[in-house]
Amino acid sequence: MEFLYKYSWIVPLCPFLTSASTGLALFLFPKSTRSLRRICSTLSIISLAVAMFVSLILFWQQVTSHSTYEYFWSRIPNDDIYLKMGFSVDPLTLIVSILVTTVGISVMIYSDSYMRHDQGYVRFPVYLSFFTASMLGLVFSPNLIQIYVFWELVGMCSYLLIGFRFVRPSAANACQKAFVTNRIGDFGFLLGILGTYWITGSFEIRESCDRLIELIDNNSISYFLANVCALSSFPGPVAKSAQSPLHVWLPDAMEGPTPISALIHAATMVAAGIFFVARMLKFFETLPLSMNVISYVGAITALLGATIALAQADLKKGLAYSTMSQLGYMMLALGIGAYRSALFHLVTHAYSKALLFPGSGSVIHSMEKVVGYSPQKSQNMFFMGGLRKYMPITGTTFLLGTLSLCGIPPSACFRSKDEIISESWIHSPLLGWIASFTAGLTAFYMSRIYILTFEGSLRASSGGTQLLPLPSQFNKFIWGNTEIDVVEEERSDCYPLVRDEEYISTIESRGELPVRREEIITGPKIDHSSKSLYPTESDTLMLLPLILLSIPTLFIGLVGIRKETGLDSLSEWLIFPTSISEDEENYGNFIQFLLDSISSVSVSLVGIFIACIVYGPISFHRLDSYSINSLSKKIRDSFSLTIQDWSHNRGYIDYLYEISFVRGTLLLSKLTSIFEVWIIDGIVNGTGISSLTGGETARLGEGGRISSYLFGLMIGITPLLTVFAFPAPQEFIFQDITYTSMK
């Protein structure tokens, strides 16, 4: 067993070597490497498959032996710092490792078909392999320094992948926004690491946790100082896992290719913050104030993400805010000490979202043939509808992922979300209300996404033609803010007005439509009788990952069902110093498990029912054609418009940052510039100008003639002589002296 653990470094090394070798070959021999792009993609898949195989073997060994293993070799040994580098193998490490490798393989197989017509086809698997290698390196890190190094590598890879199509200004801005936002969090993260070393004297995670507990038990450290050091590191997970208020980068990250969205939202970047808090939970648990901050940040994030997702028109951004909300659930669970429930939801949500994002990519890939390559149309649910009859496999798998996030049994997220809601009610009624209400909102907006995309009838023809009028403000809430005019005959609106030559070349290289250069600018000329006007099902390589990911989406939640012994499979795998209460020991069988979940399932069913009423065949928006009380209609329209504006404007948080930070920084820079120009430079320039003026004046007086000098001398002496030769008259002051006779 120990022999196997010694080779755990193979897991992150395999994708790293593949990424490095392919990237080096692409740099040295670009043309030859591009001609072997399918081989490069296959090598990336094989290397990650090897990493997955090793992870599974280690996991099986760990399950049977219930042991942990750490291997170190010393670096920087001196009197002040003794840093140990190595790797750690425990249940948390192996569960997340299996999650990263399985989702990564599915995404790479999917990308082989999705990205095959892209000019950056070879560059894409290089970034993907490096991304997964960085995440695996973070997972196996035993100390804070190694975690920080791989933490930054994960951020760098996300920057490269979000800005993969950097010729689009929106993609370039999105990757910069993600980079800057994460740098803000990482600055606090670094301060927290240094503060932890300052109070505990160690970078090792286990040793730091044990020393902090010892210091607090002995009252050897200030409680306030310990909380400051703990919360200083929390901005890092807040930014990485898109927690409020540093979540603003996540929806813009949808500018990257869809496979990247699947990998970021399921198993890599956003999971890094949850993993770190779970790894350091023993450290945070000794500080109740820090735990309360973590729990309420998670609760606010869950509710905020759910409310913003209510009226999103963009398919991928709706799923992005769903990810933000579910990550809030995980952070909430960690904040109330529900370690097992948080990790359980991390796994179930990862597989569900890894199914939904490739499904959305399959839809977008198919809609591009109908409405063009503009993301404002191909990703807009307003133009979709009725896709289930054109794409039955994609529609079925997407429905499974939707039911999972809604929390409908026996899907994956059903059990994990129910546990978090139950733990929230036990810890605090306020947190319980937020968690329950968010569950209902989740069921509503996920059902909305599915119905608008796959049910009903197709709402757009090949020109981007709008087929369904929107008569009231309430309908804007139903569809989201489309901001697209009705077009009936004008075919040029099918493609975006793109003039960028590199982007045009990219469009020409994609083989789905035989378009010409002028058609990209003016719009294609398509025969309306052709079948290409309608979406079609994706190819086998794109459907295979969807089918495979449907299996864990349906059944991975079964590992959380408790057995007669009082423990479930996940609890048996996890080794964490928490005791099981008597209520948990007598939790009962599967029937009792279902009975205890009635409340959370009922909330989800209410959300689904409302979505079906609003968006289903008997849609509530059709009541506009009937006589409705004018006051109630105004109230309804006002309420729906408020929700729509809140969702469209992303909760107004971006505007708040624009006013407070962006404009504030610009104003401060302008004031600084004025101060520098008129005060700092004014003093320096004034001194120089006065010296120049004095010198020029003296130079004009230097004529070189003695008579001029004598004349000037006389002019200067004459006033002096006048003053000293004729002194001013003296003033005499007389004092009256009174003599008083003394008797």
UniProtKB/TrEMBL annotation:
Q: Where in the cell is it found?
A: Plastid, Chloroplast thylakoid membrane
Query: GO biological process: any one?
Result: electron transport coupled proton transport
Classification via Pfam families: Proton_antipo_C (PF01010), Proton_antipo_M (PF00361), Proton_antipo_N (PF00662)
Where is it mainly found? Answer: plastid
| Highest taxon in the source lineage | Eukaryota
Q: Which GO terms describe its cellular component?
A: chloroplast thylakoid membrane
Membrane spanning residue stretches = 6-29, 41-60, 92-110, 122-141, 147-167, 179-199, 260-281, 293-313, 319-339, 390-410, 430-451, 541-561, 598-618, 709-728
Decide whether keyword NADP is in the record: yes
Q: Which PANTHER family match?
A: NADH-UBIQUINONE OXIDOREDUCTASE CHAIN 5
What family name appears in the similarity comment?
Answer: Belongs to the complex I subunit 5 family.
Query: What is the protein's name according to its record?
Result: NAD(P)H-quinone oxidoreductase subunit 5, chloroplastic
Give the organism, scientific name.
Dicranopteris pedata
